[in-house]
């Protein structure tokens, strides 16, 4: 069990089904319930001089080392420890952006969990994930679902694990979604009172926190995956075989880390297994806020019908 420096103030958080004991404050996360032993320890190391960190993703002594210029260095070891060495003067939120993103992506890979670049919501007690590249509208769609009563399970990173019965489940991720200002205002929200996702005057993407009652706090069975794509009209198409597996592979979050930790075979097997067990659909749709409501209504209707049990003859 990793040990955190007793001289540092620590707090326990919960994310991805893990109890996180951290000396780096992470206000985006919910506090961990109870008094469980930590699954993961995050410790703050010494500050680094500006300009001293080069971009890198390297494997060393069983760990992954991520170097992010102007942010810091993250050493992720054994799936249970992250050492954070910040650049002196880095904004806290910028440091956490990479800690909760890339560093946790590496940690999940080390633990044998499959992280997808996806949002996930709850529909009728099951998880439905929406994969897509950055800018595909995942968070905008999640916000639309949230505002209509569907609980948020994950934003940007949807972690998938196979349970004791071999069934894929989606683990609860970060309880927030991020929206560009245009999408934020289109959803009826104002940026006033919200925090920019990245501390920069020209960065108009904002964190929208999700209240505990509207976030899923436990793993849910994964019922379907939709791959968001661009099209002139709304069109659904079920993917099969190699195409479905390739969609999972290409939308694996921080998939480039797989080679660094020498888990190529395990990752490929997990992607194929998931594609065989969960229906995967391509959704082509216009990327226009003017058509967001109509397209989202149609996606919800399609998803509900796809989840419904077949009618009896």
How do you describe this structure in short?
The protein is of the alpha+beta class and 313 residues long. The protein contains seven helices and 19 strands.
Question: Which structural traits does this protein have?
Answer:
7 helices; 313 residues; eight-stranded mixed sheet; single chain
Major beta sheet, strand line-up: 3-1-2-4-8-7-6-5
Strand content: 25-35%
* Cα gyration radius (Å): 19 Å
Total discrete domains: 2
Low-confidence stretches: 1-6
Report on this model:
With 313 residues, the chain is of the alpha+beta class. It folds into 2 domains: 11-110, no CATH class; 114-307, no CATH class. 25% of the residues lie in helices and 33% in strands. It contains 7 helices and 19 strands. The protein has an 8-stranded mixed sheet with strand order 3-1-2-4-8-7-6-5, covered by helices on one side. Strand 5 (56-60) and strand 6 form a beta hairpin. Helix 4 packs across helix 6 (264-277). The longest helix has 19 residues, at 92-110. The protein is globular and about 55 Å long. Mean pLDDT is 91; it is low at 1-6.
Can you lay out the helices and strands and say which pair or pack?
Elements: E1 11-15, E2 18-22, E3 30-31, E4 40-44, E5 56-60, E6 63-68, E7 72-77, E8 81-86, H1 92-110, E9 114-123, E10 126-131, H2 138-146, E11 152-154, E12 157-162, E13 168-171, E14 176-180, H3 181-186, E15 195-196, E16 205-209, E17 220-230, E18 235-239, H4 241-250, H5 257-260, H6 264-277, E19 280-285, H7 292-307
Helix pairs in contact: 4-6
């Amino acid at each position: 069990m990793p040990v955190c420096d007793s001289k540092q103030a620590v707090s326990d958080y919960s994310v991805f089904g893990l109890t996180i004991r951290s000396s780096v404050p992470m206000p985006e996360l919910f506090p961990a319930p109870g008094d469980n032993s930590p699954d993961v320890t995050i410790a703050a190391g010494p500050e680094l001089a500006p300009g001293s960190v080069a971009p890198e993703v390297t494997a060393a002594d069983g760990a992954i080392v991520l170097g992010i210029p102007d942010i810091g260095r993250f050493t992720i070891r054994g799936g249970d420890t992250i050492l954070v060495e910040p650049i002196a003067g880095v904004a806290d939120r910028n440091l956490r952006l990479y800690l909760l993103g890339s560093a946790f992506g590496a940690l999940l890979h080390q633990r044998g969990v499959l992280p997808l670049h996806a949002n996930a919501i709850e529909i009728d007690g099951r998880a439905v994930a929406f994969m897509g590249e950055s800018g595909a509208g995942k968070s905008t769609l999640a916000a639309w679902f949230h505002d209509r009563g569907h609980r948020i399970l994950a934003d940007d990173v949807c972690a998938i694990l196979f349970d004791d019965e071999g069934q894929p489940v989606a683990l609860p991720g970060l309880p927030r979604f991020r929206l560009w200002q245009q999408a934020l205002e289109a959803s009826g929200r104002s940026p006033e009172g919200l925090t920019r996702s990245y501390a920069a005057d020209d960065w108009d993407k904002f964190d929208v926190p999700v209240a505990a009652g509207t976030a899923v706090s436990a793993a849910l069975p994964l019922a379907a995956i939709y791959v968001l794509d661009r099209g002139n009209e709304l069109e659904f198409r079920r993917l099969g075989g190699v195409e479905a597996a390739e969609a999972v592979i290409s939308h694996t979050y921080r998939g480039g880390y797989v080679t660094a930790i020498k888990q190529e075979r395990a990752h490929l097997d997990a992607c194929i297994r998931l594609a065989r067990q969960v229906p995967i659909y391509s959704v082509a749709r216009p990327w226009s806020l003017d058509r967001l409501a109509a397209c989202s209504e149609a996606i919800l209707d399609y998803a509900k019908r796809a989840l419904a049990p077949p009618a009896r003859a």
